[in-house]
Amino acid sequence: MYHNLRIVYITTSNNEEAVKIGRSLVEEELAACVNIIGGMKSIYRWEGKIEEAQECVLLVKTHYSKMKLLTKRVKELHSFDCPCVVSLTLTENEGNTDYIQWLLDNSKEAFAS
Fold first, then answer.
1. What is the pTM of this model?
2. Cα-to-chain-centroid distance, residue 30
3. CB atoms within 10 A of CB 40
4. Of 91, 81, 26, whose CA–CA distance to 58 is shortest?
5. N or C: which terminus of the chain has fewer CB atoms within 10 Å of its end residue's CB?
């Protein structure tokens, strides 16, 4: 079921941290695939001040059944006090159905539907 597939958006402080987290998520079978995008400039409010930082983005493809464990693992590995981990639901009948099937085959728990 498509509605159980997620794209998870995660930001990290640098490429090294992004690779460490991304590799761990795939090796531990919490994600089917992780894409790393470097060179992102972030502007955000933190503890009452406007901050700017260079960051990396991870786009993680996974199944809903893995989200709690994935989020817990990212928080364990991440250097930020409050890391960005947000999930977007994939919509049925949009995109390459062969790829969607690959994501399902490589990300869901045996008990998940």
1. 0.88
2. 10
3. 12
4. 26
5. C
Q: Give the whole-number percent of the chain exceeding pLDDT 90.
A: 73
End-to-end CA distance of the chain: 7
Q: How far apart are CA 6 and CA 88, in angstroms?
A: 5
Helices 67-77 and 15-27, axial angle in degrees (round to 10): 140
- Amino acid occupying residue 1: M
Contact between residue 70 and residue 87 where contact means Cβ atoms under 8 Å apart: no
User: What pLDDT is attached to residue 97?
Assistant: 85
How many residues are present in the chain? Answer: 113
CA–CA distance, 97 with 101 (Å, rounded to integer): 6
> Residues 11-52: pLDDT tens digits?
999 999 999 999 999 999 999 999 999 999 999 999 999 999
Residues 6+ apart with CB under 8 A from 24: 30, 73, 77
Check whether domain 2-107 has CATH 3.30.70.120, yes or no: yes
